[in-house]
Design brief:
Blueprint (H helix, E strand, L loop, with lengths): L7 E5 L1 H4 L7 H12 L4 H10 L10 E5 L2
Length: 67
Amino acid sequence: MLFRSGDRVVLFSDGFSESAEDETWAADAVQRLGRVHSKDLAGVLASAAAALGPQADDITVMDIRAI
């Protein structure tokens, strides 16, 4: 896979996707919040997951962008 300027890859741990009962919320949150938060997406996503309540696992999010 060749990345071009502006391309983005968002990686997250199972603790992130399992922070809500419905695990599909993670992909939806990445798409929805990714449109609004171009520079601080990883922090925004991690905060959104943590705000869902007490967590049983770590929450890890990485936002990798080609410049």
